[in-house]
Amino acid sequence: MTKTNQKKGKLIVFSAPSGSGKTTIVKHLLANKDLNLAFSVSATSREKRGEEVDKKDYYFLTASAFKNKIKDEEFLEWEEVYRDNFYGTLKTEIERIWAEGKHVVFDIDVSGGLRIKRKFPEETLAIFVKPPSIDELKIRLKKRKTESNDKINMRIAKASAELATAPLFDVIIENDNLETALQEAETLVSEFVNS
Q: Among residues 61, 121, 155, 175, which is most buried (max CB within 10 A)?
């Protein structure tokens, strides 16, 4: 299938501060085969955590390889989240999923999510997942036991700025009750992909 006659699917963006539950929501939606979704695997220059698998959880790149791809304009969007810690969406990832005839689901940071919405305003549903409070967010991040206290504090500081961008998204889902948030997300996405 060539790019010129390739049917474009829809783009569903989930963004939120770390620990808000967006990954849990995205995994739930991907399990619903009726939605015809595929996960956009982001690229990152950060180290693998725990059981993460290259090309499944992320495309793990060195910082220099990531910078080369930026220079070669291979990203739909990218962000230097912390110094030499890059995240981005490769254009080839979207092309791969659309070629499969599926809709793309993103689990990405706020800046990346808004960039995708700006580039594809008609094809994108941008959903912000909001935690009940910053205190709850801190509790959730500590429960993960995947990062140091310094990293957690850095994420909490960043969360305040991210929360301020929530009104720029199409929809805000407040995740104070996971079952309710999952149902709300499923309804929103189902209506969007079938519209």
A: 175
Q: Tokens standing for 59? A: 């495309």
Mean pLDDT of the chain: 90
- For 11-193, CATH number out of 3.10.100.10, 3.40.50.300, 3.40.47.10, 3.40.50.150 equals 3.40.50.300
Q: Give yes or no for a contact between 79 and 111, defined as CB atoms under 8 angstroms apart.
A: yes
Gap between the terminal Cα atoms of the chain = 24
Report pLDDT digits (tens) over 71-91.
999 999 998 877 889 999 999
State how far the Cα of 39 lies from the Cα of 103, in Å rounded to an integer.
9
Please name which of 160, 116, 187, 189 lies closest in space to residue 16, comparing C-alpha atoms.
Answer: 160
Calpha distance 104→7 (Å, rounded): 13
